[in-house]
């Protein structure tokens, strides 16, 4: 845990008022990423409003957040039950939920969008939010593969729009990529960087380019690993062993593909290929397409390049 995070936790336990760069946070989308982002923001003293399309999905997100918080509390407070309960209660008290996107942004300092990776759905959402939110509210998208400027294009606040790209699982992964478009103002960028630090994340900055830093390097790497397999150069297992023991990577490319989801990787590659057809690094492979069409999506479907216990 960083010095900053530790201080944030300490400040809360003494219930002192904190001077946060962006205090009121709205997270839209309570799936895998959104619930993690909402949890971490509430844990670090922000007032969080989580938005989903239905009450059952909000209940599911809240239940996932509680389970994840219990794990954090167990690790943080060990067997100190009172401290643990206090931490859970204070964090959950800072978390509100709603199914109304327009109501959720009335007092928001920042909105983080973590809904489906579909430009049209994101545009519809941001158009509505742009009407409902105060002028000063910063908008951010957690998109993995779309252009931030393209998402922002439907709003009248392009200077108050940027990317905050978190990693899964959000409560565990330390990195936050902060993306500034050519129109993101210095003030917006500085506040997003400050906010990232308040969340206890290590921030890095990247321009609004496909995949930012991590996915721009990882996705073509996974694509090339699949092409190696297609050519019959080596088996998936041997390629994974090679990259773990030879390059010191914690997972091999096929283990990573199964973890991320073959459909997600193919979707990213397809999108980039359509936009940049001349770039050979973004060429989707036939093997990947075939596996996805057979429903072999990786860990989530029980089989990808490997078989998994469900
Ligand atoms: N999964 C990852 O590892 C990962 C990592 C970084 C970024 N991302 C990005 O984060 C975003 C979300 O990904 P995810 O994996 O959490 O997806 P997910 O499918 O787990 O969750 C998306 C949620 O958004 C909700 N939603 C859809 N439209 C909505 C709307 N208009 N208003 C409110 N909620 C809405 C859905 O009901 C769903 O629960 C995507 O843009 C993705 O590219 C994903």
Automatic annotation (TrEMBL):
Residues 24-209 form the 3-hydroxyacyl-CoA dehydrogenase NAD binding domain. Its main location: mitochondrion. It catalyses: a (3S)-3-hydroxyacyl-CoA + NAD(+) = a 3-oxoacyl-CoA + NADH + H(+); (3S)-hydroxydecanoyl-CoA + NAD(+) = 3-oxodecanoyl-CoA + NADH + H(+); (3S)-hydroxyhexadecanoyl-CoA + NAD(+) = 3-oxohexadecanoyl-CoA + NADH + H(+); (3S)-3-hydroxybutanoyl-CoA + NAD(+) = acetoacetyl-CoA + NADH + H(+). Pathway: Lipid metabolism; fatty acid beta-oxidation. Pfam families: 3HCDH (PF00725), 3HCDH_N (PF02737). It comes from the Eukaryota. The keyword NAD applies. The keyword NAD applies. Gene3D superfamilies: N-(1-d-carboxylethyl)-l-norvaline Dehydrogenase, domain 2, NAD(P)-binding Rossmann-like Domain. InterPro entries: 3-OHacyl-CoA_DH, 3-OHacyl-CoA_DH_CS, 3-OHacyl-CoA_DH_NAD-bd, 3HC_DH_C, 6-PGluconate_DH-like_C_sf, 6PGD_dom2, Mito_3-hydroxyacyl-CoA_DH, NAD(P)-bd_dom_sf. Keywords: Acetylation, Differentiation, Fatty acid metabolism, Hydroxylation, Lipid metabolism, Mitochondrion, NAD, Oxidoreductase, Spermatogenesis, Transit peptide. One of its GO terms (molecular function) is (3S)-3-hydroxyacyl-CoA dehydrogenase (NAD+) activity. Residues 211-307 form the 3-hydroxyacyl-CoA dehydrogenase C-terminal domain. The record marks 165 as: Important for catalytic activity. It is an enzyme of class 1 (oxidoreductase). CoA binds at residues 68, 75, 144. Its EC number is 1.1.1.35. Homodimer. Interacts with GLUD1; this interaction inhibits the activation of glutamate dehydrogenase 1 (GLUD1). Mitochondrial fatty acid beta-oxidation enzyme that catalyzes the third step of the beta-oxidation cycle for medium and short-chain 3-hydroxy fatty acyl-CoAs (C4 to C10). Plays a role in the control of insulin secretion by inhibiting the activation of glutamate dehydrogenase 1 (GLUD1), an enzyme that has an important role in regulating amino acid-induced insulin secretion. Plays a role in the maintenance of normal spermatogenesis through the reduction of fatty acid accumulation in the testes. PANTHER family: HYDROXYACYL-COENZYME A DEHYDROGENASE, MITOCHONDRIAL, PTHR43561. Belongs to the 3-hydroxyacyl-CoA dehydrogenase family. This is Hydroxyacyl-coenzyme A dehydrogenase, mitochondrial. It comes from Nephila pilipes (Giant wood spider).
């Amino acid at each position: 845990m960083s010095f900053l995070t530790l201080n944030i936790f300490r400040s809360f336990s003494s219930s002192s008022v904190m001077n946060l760069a962006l205090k009121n946070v709205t997270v839209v989308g309570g799936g895998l990423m959104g619930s993690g982002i909402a949890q971490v923001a509430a844990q670090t003293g922000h007032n969080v409003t989580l938005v989903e399309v239905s009450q059952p999905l909000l209940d599911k997100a809240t239940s996932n957040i509680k389970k994840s918080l219990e794990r954090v509390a167990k690790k943080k407070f060990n067997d100190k039950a009172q401290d643990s309960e206090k931490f859970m209660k204070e964090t959950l008290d800072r978390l509100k939920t709603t199914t109304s996107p327009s109501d959720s942004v009335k007092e928001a300092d920042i909105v983080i969008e973590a809904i489906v990776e579909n430009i049209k759905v994101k545009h519809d959402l941001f158009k509505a939010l742009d009407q409902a939110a105060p002028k000063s509210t910063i908008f951010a998208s957690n998109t993995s593969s779309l252009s931030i400027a393209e998402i922002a294009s439907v709003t009248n606040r392009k200077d108050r729009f940027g990317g905050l790209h978190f990693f899964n699982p959000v409560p565990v992964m330390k990195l936050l990529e902060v993306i500034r478009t050519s129109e993101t103002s210095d003030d917006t960028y500085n506040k997003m960087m400050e906010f990232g630090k308040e969340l206890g994340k290590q921030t890095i900055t990247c321009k609004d380019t496909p995949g930012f830093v991590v996915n721009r390097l990882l996705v073509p790497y996974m694509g090339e690993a699949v092409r190696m397999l297609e050519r019959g150069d080596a088996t998936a297992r041997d390629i994974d062993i090679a990259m773990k023991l030879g390059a010191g990577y914690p997972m091999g490319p096929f283990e990573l593909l199964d973890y991320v989801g073959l459909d997600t990787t193919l979707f990213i590659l397809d999108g980039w290929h359509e936009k940049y057809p001349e770039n050979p690094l973004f060429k989707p492979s036939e093997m990947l397409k075939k596996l996805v069409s057979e429903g072999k999506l990786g860990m989530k479907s029980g089989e990808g390049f490997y078989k998994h216990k469900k």
